[in-house]
Amino acid sequence: MDKEKTIHNLKMQLRLERIVIAAIALTLATVWTVGQLRGGKSFILVDGKPIVCVYSEKDAEVVLTQIKGESGCNPSEVAFQQEVRVARAPYDARPVSRSRAFSTVRKVVCALAPRWAIIVDGKPIAALPDKKTAVDTLEAAKMKFGSMVQNLAEEPQFKQKVMVDIAAVPLKLCCKTAEEAVNLIFSNKPVETTDAIYTVQNGDIAGAIAQKHGLKLEEIIQINPGVNLAHLHIGDKVHVKALRARLQICPNNLRHQDTEVKLTVIVRDLSDKVETIPAPLQYVSSAQLYLGKSTLLFPGRSGQRQIKVAIIYENGKKTGSEIMAEEVLREASPRIIAKGIKPRR
């Protein structure tokens, strides 16, 4: 009886040891799998398209955090305008360094940071660190063009609906000072599009190349017939459309070349003018003159009037004028002409 009990206890102990060993093995396998998943190569995807491959998920998270940190805000407060996520990359994907990934992703994503924004017709055009600086920017925008005239008829006005409020704005609109914001608002940067050839570099994939040059993946496929964009190699040539921003420096009387006007400042320059009032013509009938004959009875005299004219400028460009006030200095006397009505016999 004791022998059977001993055998039973040994079996139970062996079974327990096997359970413990299996649990430890399962835990180790789980830890190894998670480590492989987190430590394996990862893609950073933007709107579902792979942009760049990095060595690990941690590298991808660091890159995205660095991009968000450029705003000066807490990265947790910053969002991306596009859908950005991290996914495991295939074994044969070619990873790049964090700095290279940062440079690539930064060009194709738009980080949105909460800022005091200048909003024109519902669209933010510049953002400042605080409300006072945003308001100062609008005043500076008015004086940019108000100072160009000698005699302001009234305070410069905005043509569009303008307001200042907190909004999530792209980092490219964020400015530190009012002067910087004014330069951004009234910058004149037309874009030219030209055909170009891009040389594939380490880590490049078709989606990243397309977004870097302002194209959709379908567009880059269309302009590269016969090129296997799914298997690019370093040194391959890919046709793209390169976008070049050209800054045109204009004089005070601004001229805009096919560029969107973000904000329009209306300025009225008041001036006084003295104008001549022509003498009106007045005809009278004369029974002393034959029909068809006429004679000058009184030469008349021109008058004078003083007017206040407001010349209207929009962002420094003259667009019209209007009379604000008028005063007659001297009435005009009519030029009197007698016309004969005496019939000929």
Q: Given the structure, what is the number of helices?
A: 7
Mean of residue pLDDT values: 83
Radius of gyration: 39 Å
Order of helices and strands: HEEHEEHEEHEEHEHHEEEEEEE
Beta-strand level of the residues, as a percent range?
35-45%
Task: Give the class from helix and strand content and strand pairing.
Answer: alpha+beta
Distance between the termini: 172 Å
Count of strand segments: 16
**Helical coverage, percent range:** 25-40%
Low-confidence stretches at least 5 residues in length (pLDDT < 50)?
Answer: 243-258
Sheet with the most strands?
4 strands, antiparallel
SSE topology:
Elements: H1 2-39, E1 42-46, E2 49-54, H2 57-69, E3 79-80, E4 84-88, H3 98-108, E5 111-120, E6 123-128, H4 131-146, E7 157-158, E8 162-170, H5 178-185, E9 191-199, H6 206-212, H7 217-222, E10 237-245, E11 265-277, E12 281-290, E13 294-298, E14 303-314, E15 317-330, E16 335-342
Parallel strand pairs: 12-16
Antiparallel strand pairs: 1-2, 1-4, 3-5, 5-6, 5-8, 7-11, 9-10, 11-14, 13-16, 14-15
What does this structure look like?
This protein is of the alpha+beta class. Among the domains are: 67 residues, no CATH class; 55 residues, LysM domain (Membrane-bound Lytic Murein Transglycosylase D, Chain A, Roll). The protein contains seven helices and 16 strands. The longest helix is centred in the N-terminal third of the chain and has 38 residues.
